[in-house]
Amino acid sequence: MDFILSLIISGLMNGAIYGLVALGFVLIYKSSSVLNFSQGHMLLLGAYIFWFFRTAMGFNLYLALFLAVGVGFLVGILIERLTLRRLIGQPLISMITVTIFLSLVIEGFVSLIWGSYPLQHIAIFSNRCFNIGNCVLTAQNLYAFGLALTTALALILFFRYTNLGLAMRGVAEGHQTMQSMGISVKKILNISWGIAGMAATIGGIILGSTLGFQLGLSHIGLLAIPAAFIGGLESPEGAILGGLLIGLCESIVSGYIGNAAGVPAAFLILIVVMIFKPYGFFGLVKIERV
Amino acid sequence: MANTSFYPPSGIYSDQYKKDMRIIKTKTQMIMSIAALIMLFVLPELPYVSGYILRLIIGAAIALIICLGLNILTGYCGQLNIGQSAFVMVGAFTSALLNSKFGLPFWATFILAGLAAAAVGVFFGIPSVRLKGLYLALTTLGAQVILTWVALFGFPITAAGFSVDPVKIGSIVFNTPEKFYYIAIPFALVMTFFAKNMMRSKPGRAFIAIRDNDKAAEGMGIDIFRYKLLAFAICTFYAGVAGSLLVHYMMWAQLESFTLQDSIWYLVMIIVGGFGSIEGTILGVIFITVLKEIIFVIGPIAEANLPFLPMGAGSGLLLIIIGGMAIVFLSVEPRGLAHRWNLFKAYYRLWPFGY
Q: CB within 8 A of B145, min separation 6: which ones?
């Protein structure tokens, strides 16, 4: 009983981080209908930038956090400006493919500057632990959990109630229509990539302080993809729920089967869900008939 | 200008449909093709051609078969596949297991490997009945993750790697690059020929129709689901045959040759070469193989001579250049090298009166 309880708790805690990363997918998808396969690598870059400011430059924690998130925003904007901007009007599939190659370039960039070995560890959160029954809960997990839920809430409100959020949803529907309504598609896409870069950096810092600053951080993107899809790509609340679901199934499957079966199990669930509910649980159902 | 490749040089007139459909339209093309074939077959005997170069060519020939399959599915039929190397793995391990457990020769296993990979491919293609585009691409990513896990933890033998017999005909054993060259090149030629012809026939035209507008294609009476599954089957059959070739060439089957990154390399090759073009696939595979080799040589030299670079910077350089090039091609020349080659042909045919 204790075993399964601790699996559930650790699954939910990890799931919140997957949800946070999945929010990055939702953010970009909602504004441009593009799935950003390089989200995991943007997260990696964000974590390394934070490490650079904190350890290599020796700034204090808050300044380093602030600078890293700011640079993350700029990186997002720069990526959009240099690659995606040139593809406006091209088939969607080539935009999606570009993000796959973007992940190669970012990983190459990171290993060119910082090398491909893990960096020195830095802790951000306190090491305090709480006991619930016989299960251990770290403060770090709680911070990540809270941060993920807060970000999700902020995004839901942002898309529902602000003009910018409305414009982003419009741009996702159709570039030409929005352009003729007097809204600059380029500006909207640019800003949404900037925000996604910021979100990725936050996720990267949280993850880096738990798992260590290493190239493997980008694999989180692989688990966040099923999370985003199961929840439905258009829905921030779906991303969080999908993240929690994937986290739960990952920890239970690896607890009982072992052998790193979590990722394949997540994809198996994804395929089954997509056969029966192609647009996820909270996604926008598009009906097409001939 | 878009379809310059379809126009023969001026002065060539077709009075029959049969003539118009020929792949080789002029005498010059015929002579050049035969010369190229002869050149290809005497290559290992030429001076300066070492085992190193032959190994590169064999690698390119195997990659060509994989990329032809991928281009049929992704370039012609428009279904993004990010898990191609997993299907290569299915073919490779099927072939290797049949060979080492049951002693079947290569000539029996390569067909079975192709069929096994195609069966797995069709299984992962089934979601295409309701999904398309991005959502379908996800199932191929799932195939990569799930199949790799099965090979790593499902069977002890595939996780560890095991040896495979070389290809034999009678008493000839094809166990060196010089000899295996004569297996790999005919395979690549035959598979290219099949791909080129298949794409000119009914299934090929159906694939293109599905890619360009699936609703219109369905309206015209094309059974989308059937043809998508067919495209999946062809794509993964090619991958399986290539996998079988690969293990019999290396004489060793191991999991490390089939990663997600390999799948992405194959995508880069067809993007640089040209989506939906058989000639482009050949150009892309050659281009990327040569470029990769150049960076493998330059990388360690740069690491040794530039002290400010950290350890492992060479692999970073490779990723930046290859990934960056794919991005440049997608945004600047989405039709790839094949299109550039056609423009060049049109240019020299019209020279000096091009305008």
A: A222, A263, A264, A267, B260
**CATH at A150:** 1.10.3470
Residue A254 contacts residue A79 (beta carbons within 8 Å): no
> What distance in Å separates the CA atoms of residue B334 and residue B341, rounded to the nearest whole number?
13
Cross-chain CB nearest to B311 (options A35, A116, A278)? A116
What's the Rg (C-alpha) of chain B? 21
Of A100, A270, A288, the CB nearest to B264: A100
Closest residue in A to B316 (Cα–Cα): A108
Range of the domain at A131: 2-276
Contacting B residues, span 287-346, partner chain A, CB-CB under 8 Å: 309-313, 315-324, 326-327, 330-332, 334
A219 vs B138: CA distance, rounded Å: 15
pLDDT score, position B4: 45
The token duo for B310 is 């950290």
Q: Is the peptide bond before B105 cis (omega within 30 degrees of 0)?
A: no
Banded model confidence at residue A93, pLDDT cuts 50, 70, 90: confident
Per the domain annotation, does B310 fall within a domain?
Answer: no
Choose among A129, A100, A112: nearest CA to A13. Answer: A129
- Cα separation, A4 vs A158, whole angstroms: 37
| Residue-number span of the structural domain to which B197 is assigned | 52-258
| Model ipTM value | 0.84
Residue A160 carries which side chain, given as an amino acid letter?
Answer: R
Does residue A215 carry a pLDDT above 50? yes
Please count the helices (runs of H) and the strands (runs of E) in chain A. Answer: 11, 2
Percent of chain B with pLDDT over 90: 45
Q: How many domains does chain B have?
A: 1
Helices B278-305/B177-198 angle, 10° precision? 140
Three-state DSSP state, B26: coil
Q: B315 and A108: CB-CB below 8 Å?
A: yes
**How many domains, chain A?**
1
> What is the pLDDT at residue B191?
95
Report, as ranges of residue numbers, the positions in chain B whose pLDDT lies below 70: 1-12, 354-355
What DSSP character marks residue A116?
S
Question: Which of A106, A213, A267, A275 has the most B C-beta neighbours within 10 Å, making it the best mutation to test the interface with B?
Answer: A267
Cβ pair B149:A97 closer than 8 A: no
Residues from chain B that touch A119, judged by Cβ atoms under 8 A, are none
pTM, two decimals, is 0.88
Evaluate whether residue B118 is within a structural domain.
Answer: yes
In a domain, A281, yes or no: no
Interface contact B158, partner A, CB < 8 A? no
> Is residue A288 a part of any domain in this protein?
no
A220 domain-assigned:
yes
Assign 3-state DSSP to chain B and report helix, strand, coil percentages, each to 5: 75, 5, 20
Can you give the pLDDT at residue B301? 83
User: In angstroms, rounded to a whole number, what is the distance separating the alpha carbons of residues B349 and B9?
Assistant: 7
A271: amino acid identity, one letter:
I
